[in-house]
Amino acid sequence: VSPRPPRLSDDELAAALPALAAWTHADGRLHRRIERPSFVEAFALMTSIALVAERLDHHPDWSNAWNVVEITLTTHSAGGLTALDLELARRIDELAG
Amino acid sequence: VSPRPPRLSDDELAAALPALAAWTHADGRLHRRIERPSFVEAFALMTSIALVAERLDHHPDWSNAWNVVEITLTTHSAGGLTALDLELARRIDELAG
């Protein structure tokens, strides 16, 4: 297990957030809601995100109700957002298309 | 798609709930929290539940945070619990061991 990255500074966050336009940022967390045509497609997306999250050793807090996936990213050990959250958000954006 | 079953009567619920001891019942919903040793094992369980849910054409409202899966069952179209929720709860119990 690699050491956890430090919490991002306000300047670092301000520089990174414009590229993550699908995410809302509040209280040290990133949040994105993704809708798919069906449960099968929503859970297929979750499966691909799960593999990426495990590879990064950084996992989302998330929920699913039929065709909707709600994703919250934060680094609990850092008490806020780190480079890991930005990386996972970018990878989720790629997977979600 | 088969017709949705009707909401269970209080008597039907009272007869069914003792066999679902891992679930709490409130406000027309069943809830179970399942903890696993890791994210991999938690998500593996979710994957097996997803396949069963799709087969039943009845899906959970659920969330995951690392090794914890929280599951809520209800039948939105019936405004409460139906035989489908009982069946899905039983299948989840089998999968969760």
Protein model, in words:
With 97 residues, chain A is of the alpha+beta class. The relative contact order of chain A is 0.25. The longest helix of chain A has 18 residues, at 39-56. Chain A is built from three helices and four strands, in the order αββαββα.
What's the SSE pattern of chain A? HEEHEEH
Query: How much of the sequence of chain A is in beta strands?
Result: 15-25%
DSSP E strands of chain A, number:
4
Show the largest interface.
A-B, 16 and 15 residues
Q: Residue share in helices of chain A? A: 40-55%
Return residue spans of chain A where pLDDT drops below 50 for at least 5 consecutive residues. none
Oligomeric form of this entry? homodimer
Distance between the termini of chain A: 30 Å
What does the overall shape of chain A look like?
globular
Output the radius of gyration of chain A: 13 Å
State the major sheet of chain A: 4 strands, antiparallel
Number of helices of chain A: 3
- For the biggest β-sheet of chain A, the strand order reads 1-2-4-3
Mean pLDDT of chain A: 96
Structural class computed from helices and strand pairing of chain A: alpha+beta
